[in-house]
Amino acid sequence: MITFHFGKVRGANEAMVSAASLKKSVQWVILFTLVYAMIANWGLMREKTSSLVQGLSNLRQTGLGSPLGTVQGDAVLLMDEKTGKILYGKNPHTRMYPASTTKILTALIALEKGNPDKIVTVGDEAGLGNSDESTAGLYEGEQLTLRDLLSALLLPSGNDAARTIARHISSIELGREVSSEEANEYFSGLMNKRAKALGANESHFVNPHGLHDPGHYTTAYDMAVIAKEARKNKLFKQIVNESERTLVRDEQSQSFVNRNKLIQKQDENYYAGATGIKTGFTEKAGYCLVASASRQTTSLIAVVLHSTKTTVWLDARTLLDYGFTLNKTDPVPRPEKAM
Fold first, then answer.
1. Residue 268 in domain
2. Which residue spans traverse the membrane (predicted)?
3. Which residue ranges make up the annotated binding site for substrate?
4. Residues 141 and 248 in one domain
5. Which end of the chain is more exposed for a tag (fewer CB within 10 A), N or C?
């Protein structure tokens, strides 16, 4: 009997010890789990904090949360024209198609290598374009000054004027008359050489007008650099700031109207202080605009590439507004529309 009772007591004691050990083990497991959870949560909090800081940094860089966040162009850039300082950029070094903003460089080379008063005879290049191209209505045998050709190039964005200028300048440089095909190749070489000399190293041009070609590309930064140089020329600045220019051709008056709505005072997209420069469009390039504006002592250049038909103007105005805000320049009042 004693042995029997002793066995029961010992069994009970062992059960109590086992239960206590199990309880302690469970407590350790719970404690370990809590500690692990705290460490994991701390790491997650640090990760979230880091992500938040990075996110805020990205907001500052992209302009999101500010008016710049509404800019739709795939590649844009804002430059202080006087200093060359970049005030804002979105994908400024991304390869893009320039469309007719190409003609800024075409005009620059023409002004550097040609005489604006020189009479130029239009050749067969006037009829090389497609029916849906932008033209100035030039025809073979027509005679205009180089200055008039530049107006035909920069205001109505005539591809025919671009080809005629390329042939004229190439003939001068080579000392002989050249074909349209040879002129295109030679003049493109001049364009690339001049771009590289300016530091526009991420561009490559294969024609003087900007019609689409996979090998014809630029960046927002490069276009700003080219525009800055072109605006050093007084005649260039004068032409791109004209709302229109009337010529007498074949004893009849014809007006070249500037496609840049920022300088058209009666247009809803008019921008007070706008001084130029050039529009562009192809299906691949989208709507492009290189714009300039001056207020008091501040001059800006804004580049918008691959935007839409309506937002390209808003993009440019938003960039320019931002630039003038940085310089705390009072806006020039918008002129009243004529009744």
1. yes
2. 26-44
3. 278
4. yes
5. C
Contact by Cβ (8 Å): 136, 160: yes
pTM: 0.79
Q: Is 262 exposed, middle or buried (0-12, 13-18, 19+ CB in 10 A)?
A: buried
Active site residue 196: no
Peptide bond into 277 cis (omega under 30): yes
d(CA 271, CA 316): 9
What CATH code is carried by the domain that includes residue 310? 3.40.710.10
Token pair recorded at residue 308: 């839409």
Complete DSSP assignment for 74-110? SEEEEEETTT--EEEEESTTS-B--GGGGHHHHHHHH
The reply to whether 100 belongs to the active site is yes
List 307's β-bridge partners, or say none. Answer: 287
Active site residue 103: yes
Q: pLDDT, tens digit, for every residue of 287-303?
A: 999 999 999 999 999 99
Q: Which domain holds residue 46?
A: 1-62
In a domain, 336, yes or no: no
The residue annotated as part of the active site, out of 90, 134, 151, 157, is 157
Distance CA 38, CA 171 (A): 79
Same-domain status, 27 and 154: no
Alpha carbons 238 and 147: distance in angstroms, whole number: 11
- Beta partners for residue 293, in sequence order: 274, 300
Last residue of a domain, one of 13, 29, 62: 62
Shared domain check, 99 and 19? no
